[in-house]
Write a structure and sequence with these properties.
alpha/beta, TIM Barrel, two-stranded antiparallel sheet, 11 strands, 13% strand, globular
């Protein structure tokens, strides 16, 4: 098991990548504090327009900064996953100007845009592969949200186009960085949105592991209500769903993001939610690791973030460990002492994708049955029945 955090720099947030002289001493302090919590890796997020501000320009100094941060992590005993096409963070989109406005291009289908994206992924892979503490490359944080119907500036595509884009991008990483753990990430729209062009089959057949982002504020929180005990089971449910959609019973699952948002948790309930979330994950044999969102609170000096973003950190903006950080450290220390309960199996059909998405979404029949068992301390695993051949 791996335990880590999504790194949100304490000073300047991700805007710190703009600094001409990156403050590596502050990065070192941040990483050392995370290591003291018992974490072994971080996921970092270089901003795409900073690294590739022009379609044919990848800034060498930006690549140097990324490698420098990776090496500071190594000094602190941390491994690193790097996001490539970054993309989207905390409600902000970070697309370069050469795919926006007067230069609007579909980032998934435009040949020149795709060529530039491949060049960036290859450039990152070339610089990161030799670093001994790098784990792999993630294509970008929840990049699929740009194709969602709810996005205000949607880049519309089909399922086949989604598949082609993923294969090209992941192939670019694999062609240069052989042996790296290369992934793509997504919100739970991929599992639950009936019309989303990125599908569970994409998630479980492409890339080296299936990632899971467990956020209780999107669907399950509004469905169950604030402080509901079932909220702490949602991460496990999504991991079970990821396993069920895979044809490979050995395929790893990475809980790449999970957090404790105050939109649906009272502050006093956060430590218990964290400990319970981690406890419920026991028994998921395919689980590769857990990477908490996030390392540090967003500073109140920065404007216009959704309110929830200011309080998600394990540490505050002064670098002090919060109750959330202590709770996660305790859960990590207790991980090997917890014995998982035996589980029954609940099945669903995967032949009709919209129907399967509705059935497994919060409020759906399968979700309801699974949640009832979890709350009765009679946990169940999930299995998919299917007759059709995968198309991804």
């Amino acid at each position: 098991m791996r335990f880590g955090a999504n790194y949100t720099p304490r000073l300047g947030w991700f805007h710190s990548w703009l600094d001409l002289d990156l403050d590596l001493d502050e990065t070192r302090r941040d990483f050392a504090a995370l290591r003291r919590l018992g974490l072994d890796h971080v996921r970092i997020f270089p901003i795409w327009p900073i690294v590739q501000p022009n379609r044919t320009l990848i800034r060498p100094s930006a690549l140097d900064d990324i490698v420098a941060v990776v090496r500071v992590a190594a000094e602190c005993g941390l491994d690193v996953v790097v996001d490539g096409l970054q993309g989207h963070l905390s409600s902000y989109d970070f697309l370069p100007s050469w795919v926006a406005s007067w230069h609007r291009r579909n980032i998934f289908t435009d040949p020149e845009a795709r060529s530039a994206e491949v060049n960036l992924i290859r450039a990152l892979s070339e610089r990161l592969a030799p670093e001994p503490n790098t784990i792999g490359l993630s294509l970008g944080n929840e990049f699929i949200q740009f194709a969602a119907a709810r996005h205000p500036n949607r880049h519309a595509i089909t399922q086949l186009e989604a598949s082609a884009w993923l294969k090209e991008m992941l192939g670019a990483a694999d062609s240069v960085w052989r042996g790296g753990l290369h992934t793509f990430s997504f919100d739970d729209d991929l599992f639950f949105d009936p019309a989303h062009p990125f599908t569970p089959e994409h998630a479980t057949t492409l890339g080296d592991v299936t990632t899971v982002h467990s956020w209780i504020f999107s669907q399950v929180g509004p469905h169950l209500g604030k402080d509901h005990p079932g909220l702490a089971t949602f991460a496990r449910y999504l991991c079970e769903l990821a396993v069920a959609w895979s044809d490979d019973p050995e395929r790893p699952v990475w809980l790449q993001e999970v957090g404790a948002p105050l939109t649906h948790l009272s502050p006093a309930k956060v430590p218990d939610f964290i400990r319970a979330t981690m406890r419920h994950l026991h028994g998921c044999d395919q689980l590769w690791g857990v990477t908490w969102w996030c390392s540090h609170d967003v500073s109140r000096t920065l404007a216009d973030f959704p309110e929830v973003e200011y309080s998600l950190g394990l540490l505050d903006t002064h670098g002090r460990v919060k109750p959330a950080g202590h709770a996660l450290a305790e859960a990590i220390a207790d991980w090997s002492t917890t014995t998982p309960a035996p589980m029954d199996v609940l099945t669903f059909s995967g032949d009709d994708l919209p129907q399967a998405r509705a059935e497994t979404a919060p409020g759906g029949d399968l979700f309801t049955a699974w949640m009832q068992r979890a709350l009765a301390s009679e946990p169940a695993t999930l299995a998919r029945q299917r007759s059709r051949v995968p198309t991804a």
